[in-house]
Design a protein that fits this description.
Layout lengths: L1 E2 L7 H22 L18 H4 L6 H11 L9 E2 L2 E2 L4 H19 E2 L4 H22 L7 H36 L1
Antiparallel strand pairs: 1-4, 2-3
Helix pairs in contact: 1-4, 4-6, 5-6
Length: 181
């Protein structure tokens, strides 16, 4: 791991900003809506279950909640509530988004070499969410929101770092190709 040079000019910083705004919107959405107006969004992933509730929201909150509606199950018992409103994503998904921001934030300041050790660390970081999610899916246990948050944050963090490494590798490949011409 090395300190990053010219960090503010980095494409990683742009990704960090975009994901940060996205996560900020997720936390602001339940706070700006009337208290108790979004109480149970439980549904199915890949399907719009809550068009009636979301249709009454103004922009950008309708976009944030529509994304959650299509990408997440949004089960109320597995979600966090702010201002008496359910968050747009469940606890695990919210933590994954937040972890991606933290991982990208780390990568704004540091570079990591793509090697076997890095791949092993990424895989190790994904094991806890896999164990928790599969164990819960197979009814071995019912996970808690705290455990969902911790495993989601860890998985999102390693994914954010991986995104940063991938961006660095793409830039390196482009620079190498340009220097060979």
């Amino acid at each position: 791991m090395k300190p990053r040079k010219n960090r503010l000019k980095s494409l990683i910083f742009v990704f960090f900003l975009l994901f940060s705004v996205w996560v900020l919107l997720q936390f602001l959405a339940p706070l700006v809506l009337p208290p108790g107006s979004v109480s149970d969004l439980s549904g199915v992933v890949g399907f719009s279950d809550n068009d009636q509730v979301i249709g009454n929201m103004s922009f950008p909150w309708n976009v944030v909640y529509t994304s959650g509606d299509r990408l997440c199950h949004q089960q109320a018992s597995r979600s966090l509530f702010l201002n008496g409103n359910e968050m747009p994503f469940c606890t695990r998904c919210t933590a994954i988004w937040l972890g991606i921001v933290l991982g990208l934030g780390f990568m704004v300041f540091f570079t990591i070499e793509l090697n076997e050790k890095f791949v092993a660390i990424i895989l190790l970081g994904l094991i806890p969410i896999g164990i928790d999610g599969v164990g819960q899916l197979l009814d071995f246990w019912e996970s808690t929101n705290l455990l969902r948050f911790i495993t989601g944050l860890l998985a999102g963090g390693v994914c954010g770092v991986a995104i940063g490494v991938i961006i660095d590798e793409i830039k390196t490949i482009r620079i190498d190709k340009a220097s060979k011409k």
